[in-house]
Amino acid sequence: MTPDYLSNLKPDLTPFEIDCGKVRGYTYGGDLRSELDTGRIDRATALRLLEDMLMIREMEEMIVTVRSGAYEPLANYNYRGPTHVSVGQEAASVGAASALLLKDYITSTHRGHGDSLARGSQAIRSMSEEQLRKRVPHSKAASREQLLEEALEEHVYRMIAELFGKEDGYCKGRGGGMHIADFTVGHLGANAIVGGSVPIATGAALGCRYVRNGAVVCCFAGDGAYANGVVLESVNFAAQYQFTNEIAGAHRFGIPIIFLVLNNHYGMSGRADSEVNGISHLARRAAGFSDHNMYAETVNGMDVLAVRDATLRAAEKCRKGEGPMFLDVSTYRYYGHSLSDPRNEYRTREEEVAWKALDPVETYKRQVLECELVDEAGLAVMQKRVKERNARAAGRAAEAADPDPKDVIKYMYTDTVADVVPPQFQKVEVIGPAPVIKRTNGEITYRDALKEALIEEMRRDRRVIFYGEDVAEYGGAFKLTKGLLETFGRDRVFNTPISEAAICGTSVGAAMIGLRPVVELMYMDFALMASDQISNQAAKWHYMSGAQVEVPLVIRASVGAGKGYGGQHSQTLETMFTHIPGLYVVYPATAYDAKGMLKSAIRDNNPVMFVESQLLYNVKGVVPEEEYLVPLGVADVKREGTDISLVAWGPAVPDALKAADKLKAESGVSAEVVDLRSLVPLDMETVLRSVQKTGRCVVVSQAVNIGSFTGEVASNIQAEAFDYLDAPVLRVGAKNGIAPQSHILEAVFLPTADDIVAAAKSIL
Ligand SMILES: Cc1ncc(C[n+]2csc(CCOP(=O)(O)OP(=O)(O)O)c2C)c(N)n1
After folding, report:
1. Counting atoms of ligand 1 from 1, which one is nearest the CA of 263?
2. Nearest CA to 258 among 300, 291, 295, 289?
3. What's the gap between Cα 98 and its chain centre?
4. CB of residue 546 inside a 6 A radius of ligand 1
């Protein structure tokens, strides 16, 4: 398929000037009176804004005193962990949250108490009675008002319990304040990696766009984050023309995300305005990413109504498919970066006084009084209610049960798989015939086996989407996915910018909201560009959320070793990812396994690093046309033997089989070849069974030997089968060096069948 837009890319060298257009700031001219008069807000909502800001202010001030030991009800409570309070920024969190619907999503930051409290309470207030009862199942409340009050208190309790690391916390004490999440209200997580949640939010919005659920993602992140690579990649990813323009096979609908910069003008201490950036207003960032500047504007973040107004307008545009949007919300944190930061090294008291004169809580409180929504006495009642609610919640949280130490690694993985596709995702739109995969004597290549797995899974489940660099018309650098675009359309198969971190990060967000993305990394070396998103995000969210969320995604990464591509295109890096708890890491060696394992990986609810070898792409094997799965975490004895075990994975398996042939031919040795297939989960049982039989073992991979997973396997054998061993377990890998380009050098660099034979002979 040649897309229409390609024919337009003809040279046009007419001189021109780019007008970057206008980015406006502080245009909101309303106040509470005008909002009430025009009916843009009702009295109850207006009061809730105040109550929520008070709740946040009060809760964070309480946490500060708890931390110092001076909070009397919890005197000397041992509160550990980080404390990044957002006092001063309440209007930003509450104003934005009040503009969102229950079905919407947020992501947040290390300074996210306010975002979490605001999102939770606004969402809870909009819940039905039935939904509220689910949050407080033991409630005996007779009225909705009472039920709501209990649900709000439970919300504060679960927040504080999480800060205190308790089992009752939102994330069962596994996440803490910097990773707090409540998936029941679409809070997809605060993030302790600055900028780490921005691609996740973008991916969630990509998912909302795909399923057209009308939801919007509000991505809170600090000004410091907007200097970070993955953040800029994500903004670019969200703004792609292919989502907003009519191009072949694509639906026109912009990604429904609001990039809401919580611009408190400082990173930890670095000044966004006049030091570490080259622009005076962060809203200008958006001008680099879309022709209409993503409708960016700077908003007075000390005014809850201004933030609410901007977020309402932004959300409305998003719902109409006019996203993404960019809001630079100017605000201020009163405390230091953390409680150990005295602030005086990088900002003046005068500056603080000037900002505090605009205090969002006090300013809005005055308006509420002026508009007579409440009088002084009523205000005092509200303040008392909030304070006492927080205090009760904190008291309960301090008394609550700690997690059971025996559960320390519980929730690292999920054991669920998508064996049943929900009815709404069973109906798949196929827009063209699937590519034909020809069999010769039942054989197809490893490449086609992977393609067939993708086709079958995309036919089976509409939640499976596939994207990566050059994967659409071009079919990927190795032509593995040629034809998928024409079969499933551009909403499900699309090219991405060259942004590995955004590719992997968006897949995390899309998975969090219920899709099952498969993404392609052209070379495994490029996974290092995405290491935060793979290792800190994909791998960790199931655990850090206390198992609230599963992150079912597959990252297909292809290893280029053996082609003379040199140090940055030839690395065998699966070991690195086995060191990251929470990820599955698999590496099939045959066409049969490639298909069956990719299908299993797509159905698994854990994030899977699926490693492929370009050396194997053209290797053929018998692959059934009918449905089959190869389970993850189950090794396979590729050849039986009695004298020595050769344990290998990936392209080292054919080498081990060759070595077994040679050992037989040269010395009459019967070698058993065990293909590990999955490194995580690791099937040691099959390995141990083999070693117990043979008494000798060589572990082989194409990775460099330093720190290789071969060491992990060897050490497990030594620990668990020492009595059966007749010789030390040896390891064979690449030389401890950098892959060279010269094919003469590369041939020496990579392990060969002869190296395996030599190692085997040395212990036979
Ligand atoms: C990737 C990364 N780099 C550095 C840090 C350490 N760090 C934590 S918060 C922070 C400042 C972040 O500034 P900003 O994004 O503006 O958010 P703010 O703290 O102002 O709310 C830094 C440098 C981190 N957590 N993650």
Report:
1. 16
2. 295
3. 25
4. no
Structure tokens at 645: 């075990």
CA-nearest residue for atom 6, ligand 1, is 194
Strands 620-622 and 443-445: antiparallel
Compute, in angstroms, the gap from residue 231 CA to the centroid of ligand 1: 13
Its sign, for the CA torsion 187, 193, 194, 196, is negative
Collapse the DSSP code of 753 into the 3-class scheme (helix H, G, I; strand E, B; otherwise coil) and give the result. Answer: helix
Give the residue numbers marked as catalytic: 500, 569
- For residue range 590-642, list pLDDT tens digits in order: 999 999 999 999 999 999 999 999 999 999 999 999 999 999 999 999 999 99
Cα distance between the two ends of the chain: 58
Segment 425-452, tens digit of pLDDT: 999 999 999 999 999 999 999 999 999 9
Residue 223, ligand 1, Cβ within 6 A: yes
Contact 117, 85 (CB under 8 A): no
- Amino acid in the structure at residue 561: A
Q: How confident is the model at residue 81 (pLDDT cuts 50, 70, 90)?
A: confident
Q: What percent of the chain has pLDDT over 90?
A: 96
Q: Cα–Cα distance between 622 and 191 in angstroms, integer?
A: 46
Burial class for 213, CB neighbours closer than 10 Å (0-12, 13-18, 19+): middle
Binding site membership of 268 for ligand 1 (Cβ less than 6 Å)? yes
Question: From ligand 1's centre to the CA of 109, what distance in Å?
Answer: 9
Atom of ligand 1 nearest to the CA of 226: 15
* Run of H or E residues at 397: helix 376-399
